[in-house]
Amino acid sequence: MPLIEAPVSLKGKSQMKQRRNLTISQFFDKHFVTITIAPFVIAIAAACVVPLVMVFIESLFVDRPGEFFFVGFKNFLDISTDRAFHADLLRTIEYSGLSSLFSFVIGLAMAMVLNQSIRGRGFFRVWALYPWAVPPVVAGFIFKWFFNEVYGAGNDLLIRIGIGGVNWLSQPDIAMVLLIACDTWVRIPFVLIILLAGLQTIPKVLYEAAEIDGASPVRLFRHITIPYLIAPIRVAMLVVTMFSFRMMDIMMILTGGGPGRATHLFAAYIYKQGFRFLHFGRSAAASVIMIFATLLIVAAYNIFLKPRVKESR
Amino acid sequence: MKKTIIFILFVVILLGGNIYAGGKQEKKAEAAELSFQDLMAKLAWEENAVERLTAPKWQPPKGWEFIADKVSEISVINSGSLSGDPATEVTAKRFEEVTGIKVKFIVVPSAASVRRGTTILMSKSKEADVVYVKLYILKDWERAGWIEEIDFMYRPDPDVPQLYTDANTNASKYKGHWYATPWMARYGELLYRKDLLKEAGLAEPPRTWQELVDYGKKLTTSDKWGFGFYTGDVYPLGFSINLHSLLYSAGITPDDIIDERGIPHYDFPVAVKALEFMTRCVQDYKISPPAVTISSDTDTYEMFVAGKLAMSFQNTWVNGELREEWPLDKWAIAPIPVSGGWEGTPEGIVATKVDPRFYAINRYIDPYKKAAAALFMDCFRSYEAMKNQEVIEGNQALMPLVYKDPEVMEKIPYSDIIVSIGQRAYSALYNNGDAVVETLMEWGNKAITGKVSAQEALSEAQKAINDFFPKE
Prior knowledge:
- The structure holds 2 protein chains of 2 kinds.
- By secondary structure, chain A is mainly alpha-helical.
- Helix content of chain A is 75%, strand content 3%.
- Chain A has 13 helices and 2 strands, in the order H-E-E-H-H-H-H-H-H-H-H-H-H-H-H.
- Chain A is flat and about 100 Å long.
- The termini of chain A are far apart.
- The mean pLDDT of chain A is 87.
- By secondary structure, chain B is of the alpha/beta class.
- Chain B folds into 2 domains: 37-186 and 355-426, Periplasmic binding protein-like II (D-Maltodextrin-Binding Protein, domain 2), CATH 3.40.190.10; 187-353 and 429-467, 3-Layer(aba) Sandwich (D-Maltodextrin-Binding Protein, domain 2).
- In chain B, 48% of the residues lie in helices and 13% in strands.
- Chain B contains 22 helices and 11 strands.
- In chain B, strands 3, 6, 7, 8, 9, 10 and 11 form a 7-stranded mixed beta sheet that branches. In chain B, strands 1-2 form a two-stranded parallel ribbon. A two-stranded antiparallel ribbon of chain B has the order 4-5.
- Chain B starts with a helix and ends in a 5-residue tail after the last helix.
């Protein structure tokens, strides 16, 4: 018996060892991607989540030079009664709404034109992306110099043709229009490229069939183009609106928020509460409000721009 | 097998990186054995302090050598590109030659230099050993305890503070202690186009606000403005600068502005008149461009150079630019005109604002680094450094003695006027300076653009300013 049993036991051990080896090897094979990516996913999550949590904690404290103490939601209450905050928030909604709308309308129109078989299409497609290559700060400077009231090219042209100069940036309403124009100019290429890609995925046979049935161009646009473009529109508009809502760089360069406070935006409110007024707790509270406002924008787009065309493969 | 090796390598790299970083941290922590103040007590700050600081060539205080044994380099925040600060570069080279300690400048755009300091200090970062400080933030940094006390640089010899203008000695003190050293200043002045005034039959610059208006009317034509100033929300936040220049020229002093609790007040009658003056120059007299509300000193300087502006309130830094480019028969400077009883204001006096620039020591760095930083600051507050600032770069010296230097008198146009301007130059110092300046700018520009009256603007601004300070 023992003579027979011994080899079985040895065999069993060897099999177990082999199985264990196989298990480790199999484990790596099975989870290799997860194991190697996990540290980076954790690091990225930490880089996003930790600051988010810290901002929220900071928002519950008075944090000024020489002062640091817990105040609960007082910073939020203070902000809610701050007239400057209300004005900046409303102005930002107006600004980002108009800027996104114009970016969309112009971007869509350009995408439709550049989707046609026109001469020099390649050149125009590349050239249309030019504003995207310009950093927003530089775009701000371009507009600032062009519309400078005393020595800018804009007024120079107007004076040469006999119209006379305009106080572009020192008139509150005109300054806001220019700010929206500059932001729109920077963002159109992004909308254009997304929508152009979307347009190219629409099967041509749909248009051909509809034309044979006698559909007008408006009906083609309404019943074929738009339903197929909903998903790209949602992506483009979501990104453009979020970026406009959080924009500060163009404003700081072009108008500095002025004249007075006529073009002052929400992101600048957060920045100034922190780095000019040194009221870091209040700045953090305003940041928390901005995070929620951004999430609201995302939710709104997801609710109102649901894809209408089901993908079929 | 390959994947197992890759995984093991991956883990080794991650762990190795962490261990290496941890080791570096420990090494740094070991360095601190003596406090900064202990180290500074080893230096003979009191010995020939005045002679040493006012000598043509800077010498560090005796006993400094042990610092150079421990520190090979210090980092300093510089406002703007070094190519625009040749005097800073020359003085830093001199410091390196004398001490052997290298200076690494952290170049930050001018508009962001102070904010960068704030982020470094509030995060207790060791990124910069010496931080660049402007007037409006200095009190907040001192109050926060973010910068080191440097009484040893001033106290041992009571004549040392006397070397500098009052504006500096007041500015760099908080609750009886010193925290910063000056290295240059900018005064408010009236810059004017001599050639354009001559064409209009005006031989002398205006001396009162009313003359400024009269001259402005004569000089304003379809293609140029008679008088300019700058109040935009762009660096260096000019509304406050111009308002203060007008207030001081109306006989107001910082003591009239700041109450016993340290809160500034701007809703008093003379301040309202000063804002009314700026508003009327744009709205009624139409001698100033509406663009003042979005302009900085650089914008008005460019307008001036382009011949679009005949007279302008300016910072004295532009003199350095102009003296390189233009002959003296085209431009000149004068003190800010006095109020002279304009619309019921007092008679006023020749006075202006001063905007000194300071260096301070990051409180969160190693004591030896702090000691090296103190040596650097000592070099930059010296006669040699301040002369460099004036001669090489056109920045003004806070050490009046510099203007008696024959080379300065010869090379610097209108140095006598600069000295007379500097004799009564004030700076209003309070906490929350940046917030106050921002608030004044916002409401001041609302008045200048005609949205509210000057009285209403300053009353609203004052309400907001009061909220920045504790109630008791």
